[in-house]
């Protein structure tokens, strides 16, 4: 394939990656308006965010396995159209059931594209350019993840929440047209489609039990019998899934892929970093609008400092990674991550906005430089590229889902601890309580980055030692 066509296809796949990722975070800032316009309680309106994330986690492995058998490009293209249809339906929704139904359709399309985009990129580009190609795609994915609240604030300042979804329609159709014209033709499968449905059922039950426990536990407390029971069910289902996959001829997920330390650490560290990113998505809009009293438009502009730096650092990190290795670049990025996290867990309103912007910009720089996709895809064999791409997307979405629940749980736990009573909303009369809860949350975010850093240090050390022998 010609180099120009390669970059055109990279742009097409990255545009869809951007849309499907940003739709996991851009809705957060619109939940209050959705609640009012759709005549739904706030806690029910928040399912518009949760349903999308959880369903993507449920479907990614399925479509990753399917794409290895019938072709990644066809799954990706169909997924793009399904996502566009779901986006149009979301924008036209007039009540909460319709919105949730359209979010389900949107999530099906998003999971189809997320499960295949990395595999398509590694298939199209030669191995010596995987780093820069995946780095460009990572910049779209990561910008989509962290740009949501900022872009959402700007849209809501000038337009209605409907345009948060309508904006996907023309972009998605353009991306599909590019792909339809330039994507190489795939060979038809010679064997029948096989799927380990028993293993997949165990996996689905594990994911659903885990997230229902998390979201329900936020409302009633995590020490309740029913919440503990759901966590036990999730653990049993995970054990059943592993047992099944190790004792079937055609597993849904070949667990041998995790024997590669670089792959496993890449997955874990990616999940941790994306979880930490959701601390900003959930906490910073409140801090800017409620504590510092900025408008949604100004708050959106301030939050845009993250993706602006991310856009430049991701491809640069990919190019450097092609020369010194994705693990070493990611190690540097994780060290850089510690600076903004330290700022966020100590900042006071009296410091002024400059320190916050510095922290957000450093965060964007580190987030772009972190080469999670090249780490994961580069440590997976050619026969695993389809399922490896699904696992990479699953790690991202699991991290985002966990970060969504963990950040808010820690925030309100810290606020309640300071207030001496249970609080689950912004303490309007006591903004200092919110600042305390924010600092409490970011201490955990700092610790999560430290865990990822230790894992990556051990990986780089072992690789260097192995190369020197």
UniProtKB/TrEMBL annotation:
The chain crosses the membrane at residues 48-66, 78-98, 104-125, 132-155, 161-179, 200-217, 223-243, 263-288, 294-317, 329-347, 353-370, 391-415, 440-461. Coiled coil: none annotated. Residues 9-465 form the Major facilitator superfamily (MFS) profile domain. It is found in: Cell membrane. Keywords: Cell membrane, Membrane, Transmembrane, Transmembrane helix, Transport. Its main location: membrane. The keyword Membrane applies. One of its GO terms (molecular function) is transmembrane transporter activity. GO terms for cellular component: plasma membrane. It holds the Pfam family MFS_1. It is a multi-pass membrane protein. InterPro entries: EmrB-like, MFS, MFS_dom, MFS_trans_sf. CDD domains: MFS_MMR_MDR_like (cd17321). NCBIfam families: efflux_EmrB. This is Permease of the major facilitator superfamily. It comes from Pediococcus damnosus.
